[in-house]
């Protein structure tokens, strides 16, 4: 199993939302050659302006995503993510919606290390170490003029895509002793400036998830729990910092995976216990993910 990481495009009041067209990888299923699946992501924010408590926003971000992977030989792994967003905002002005195809992400990983051994307790010990890079393509829409004085940060965050081609780097390490394992990842997204001279902040994500594999009657049950840290740099407009952008969050993770032959089903939830969005005016309340995946 491999872990990696995120935040989804927002649609909000003057300051809330995270935007940026990021992606969340999560625990990869066990597969020998190829896999394909459908995932559902959900994230919820609440914003109340410090300067005017009557200005508030509840934001609900839903993503349906097709994802897949292909092992090319023994050393290379190609991954793809195609998201479709359906977002809802309920604020002091009413309720609004935004939906559409998001930014497609492609990743290529290289297996630097894979070892198997037996420890002194006669338990199998297996390690994997992967390094990879990827690209996020500007397939989602970005139709706003950030230089227009009437444009707010909410208008920018409401865009389904970033309008930019961004680059990703990641390192993934997994160690398993018997039925117990720990999967750790480090991911970094490097944004570029889009045609509107706007740049979403670079993002660092690190997480570590422990899991235990039970097996009964041909069914594998894998509960898991861990921590995630995310830090996003400020956005830039014409190389100038954009107020109320940049953030960090530390979240606890809990989930379960169930595998029956070639089919795996999983669900996970994340709850932040330390965060800062928009100078503490925006709060991430909950994030969750569910998937159904088929090994080919």
Beta-sheet strand percentage? over 45%
By DSSP (H or I, 4+ residues per run), the number of helices equals: 1
CATH topology: Porin
Radius of gyration: 20 Å
Q: CATH superfamily, please? A: monomeric porin ompg
CATH 2nd-level architecture: Beta Barrel
Characterize the main sheet. Answer: 12 strands, antiparallel, barrel
- How do the helices and strands follow one another from N- to C-terminus? EEEEEEHEEEEEEEEEEE
From the N-terminal CA to the C-terminal CA, the straight-line distance is 17 Å
How are the strands of the biggest sheet laid out side by side?
A: 1-2-3-5-6-7-8-10-12-15-16-17
Residue stretches low in confidence (pLDDT < 50, at least 5 long) are 1-13
Task: Provide the residue-averaged pLDDT.
Answer: 88
Q: Which structural class matches the secondary elements?
A: mainly beta
How many domains make up the coordinates?
A: 1
Give the beta-strand count. 17
Percentage of residues assigned to helices: under 10%
- What's the CATH class, please? Mainly Beta
Can you tell me the overall shape? globular
């Amino acid at each position: 199993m491999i872990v990696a990481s995120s935040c989804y495009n927002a649609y909000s009041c003057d300051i809330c939302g995270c935007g940026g067209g990021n992606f969340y990888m999560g625990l990869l299923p066990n597969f020998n050659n190829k896999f394909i699946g459908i995932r559902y992501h959900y994230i919820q924010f609440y914003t109340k302006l410090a300067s005017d408590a009557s200005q508030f926003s509840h934001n609900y971000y839903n993503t349906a995503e097709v994802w897949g992977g292909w092992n090319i030989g023994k050393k290379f792994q190609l991954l793809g993510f195609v998201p479709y967003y359906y977002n809802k905002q309920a604020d002091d002005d009413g309720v609004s919606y935004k939906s559409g195809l998001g930014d497609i992400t492609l990743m290529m990983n290289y297996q630097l290390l894979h070892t198997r051994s037996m420890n002194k307790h006669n338990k199998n010990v297996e390690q994997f170490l992967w390094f990879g890079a990827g690209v996020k393509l500007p397939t989602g829409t970005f139709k706003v003029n950030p230089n227009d004085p009437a444009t707010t940060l909410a208008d920018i965050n409401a865009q389904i895509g970033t309008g930019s081609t961004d680059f990703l780097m990641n390192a993934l390490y997994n160690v398993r002793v018997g039925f117990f394992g720990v999967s750790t990842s480090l991911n970094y997204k490097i944004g570029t400036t889009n045609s509107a001279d706007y740049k979403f902040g670079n993002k660092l994500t690190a997480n570590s998830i422990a899991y235990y594999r039970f097996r009964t009657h041909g069914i594998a049950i894998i509960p898991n729990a861990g921590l995630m840290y995310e830090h996003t740099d400020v956005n830039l407009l014409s190389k100038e910092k954009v107020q109320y952008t940049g953030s960090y969050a530390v979240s606890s993770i809990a989930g379960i995976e169930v595998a029956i032959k070639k089919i795996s089903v999983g669900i996970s939830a994340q709850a932040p216990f330390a965060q800062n969005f928009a100078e503490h005016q925006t709060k991430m309340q909950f994030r969750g993910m569910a998937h159904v995946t088929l090994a080919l």
